[in-house]
Amino acid sequence: LFLVVCAALSFSTPCIASVQNPSLSSCxxxxxxxxxxxxxxxxxxxxxxxxxxxxxLTTSLANSPELQFTMTKKASGDVIxxxxxxxxxVYKLCGGTTSIEREIGQPxxxxxxxxxxxxxxxxxxxxxxxxxxxxxDGNMHLKVAAIDGGTVVGCKExxxxxxxx
Length: 165
What we know:
By secondary structure, the protein is mainly beta. The chain has helices spanning 2-9, 99-105, 131-134, and strands spanning 19-20, 25-26, 33-41, 48-57, 66-73, 90-92, 117-126, 139-148, 151-161.
């Protein structure tokens, strides 16, 4: 029965989604924004991946803050381009207009200043089939830098895997 239910639901929701809890490394001495935990669920080409995080913002951000994602192939270091808001993309944290920017900005109503506080949220990314062309074996490295007024105010990096099929 479980397999029948899973087969029926597979068109909308994964029955057994893989969850990755990568080890985080700091990539900046600045720690105005510090991410303490990340989990990645359902990282698979053609699926919707959930990126959940917890972190602390110690000072408000008001000078055109943004998140800069730099995604590379772990083996070669080749940069993965921004495709349909997934990959090496820059996201506005205030006044965002794309669906992903609005999702990122939801905890502070997408307006600046972003108040100092603890934040926990999740983002949904549809991994396009086209991404399969760029990601090689699926072993990826992601660097996430928080930038305010052109200055890095926090940065974390980690490895994760995207399933190809």
